[in-house]
């Protein structure tokens, strides 16, 4: 998660899209697997991508809060469980209607990929927050100044 967090900062518009694609690939891999190893690896990929998506959404939400000045975390965090609650009852009837679990998983992966289509529009350039980078530069400058001013033995 720490690696994804570092990746997401400054890429708040692109990172969620990439993690959704990774999650859809994990779901697609789960639908195609027929081996015990595949049944172990595919959910791991989908789960890791799901966790990475949460981190990326947190980074994007934090940036939107900084830019807009409005609290957004409650709404964003409510959307994920709400989508699961809304769609979970649909999977049973979809599977029982005849197409089978493989088709249901592939349709789920396709719907997930479709959810990132609005992110393809260039809403804003991925650029690190200037204020955050200025603060890091100031800390580095102060540290170098402190080291230079330290008495030498």
In N-to-C order, the SSE pattern is HHHHHH
Number of strands: 0
- DSSP helix fraction: over 70%
Distance, first to last CA: 42 Å
The main pleated sheet reads as: none
Shape annotation = globular
Radius of gyration: 21 Å
How much of the sequence is in beta strands? Answer: under 5%
Structural class: mainly alpha
Low-confidence blocks of residues: 122-128
Walk me through the structure.
The protein is mostly helical and 153 residues long. The chain contains 6 helices and no strands. α2 runs antiparallel to α3 and α2 runs antiparallel to α5. The longest helix has 33 residues. It is globular and about 70 Å long.
List keywords for this structure.
153 residues; mainly alpha; 6 helices; globular
How are the elements arranged and paired?
Elements: H1 2-8, H2 15-32, H3 36-68, H4 73-96, H5 101-114, H6 130-149
Outline of this structure?
76% of the residues lie in helices and 0% in strands. It is mainly α and 153 residues long.
């Amino acid at each position: 998660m720490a690696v994804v967090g570092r990746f997401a900062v400054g890429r708040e518009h692109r990172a969620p899209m990439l993690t959704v694609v990774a999650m859809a690939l994990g779901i697609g891999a789960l639908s195609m697997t027929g081996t015990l190893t595949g049944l172990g690896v595919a959910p791991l990929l989908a789960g890791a991508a799901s966790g990475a998506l949460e981190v990326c959404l947190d980074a994007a939400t934090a940036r939107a809060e900084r830019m807009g000045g409005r609290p957004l975390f409650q709404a964003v965090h409510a959307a994920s469980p709400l989508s699961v609650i809304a769609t979970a009852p649909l999977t049973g009837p979809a599977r029982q209607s005849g197409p089978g679990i493989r088709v249901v998983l592939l349709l789920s992966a396709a719907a997930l990929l479709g959810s990132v289509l609005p992110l393809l529009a260039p809403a804003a350039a991925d650029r690190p927050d200037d204020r955050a980078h200025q603060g890091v530069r100031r800390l580095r400058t102060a540290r170098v100044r402190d080291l230079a001013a330290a008495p030498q033995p």
